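Deliverable D5.2: sample structural annotation.
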Amino acid sequence: MQVLFLGGALGLLMSMTGTVTATDRSDEPVDKVVQVQVERLDEGYHAACALIELATPIYVENDTPLSHVISSASVYETATGQIISITNLSVEREEQRYLSFGCLPLTADYRVEVTIAYHPEGQLSLCPKQLHIDDLREFVARK
């Protein structure tokens, strides 16, 4: 139970570390390094979400590949600003990029923050390299 709580607390801490819009906490603008694909589900699914795939680059820091990638999404109710859910997205490596994907709401009823954190393999950095999107719906609309 303590491990589960620690993991949830770590995810919450990671998702709360930034409030700026679509910023890369390194040296490149997120709009230029993150590609997004959206596949809306058919009406028959009665789903409140769309399938989202975020493609991000592979980073190396001090000759060490940052190959432990954690993507988290925080969903807020727009009207109240209240957090509804925090979840991790699935992450896979494909050739020279990472793919983070999941089913997330893209309606005006919700604001979704996404944080993609890069850590050295087998480690969790206190201040990892991060890509942060403050409002996924607006980010998708700009792309």
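Annotation notes: The longest helix spans residues 2-16. The two ends are 41 Å apart (CA to CA).
The annotation will be released with the project's public dataset once the embargo ends.
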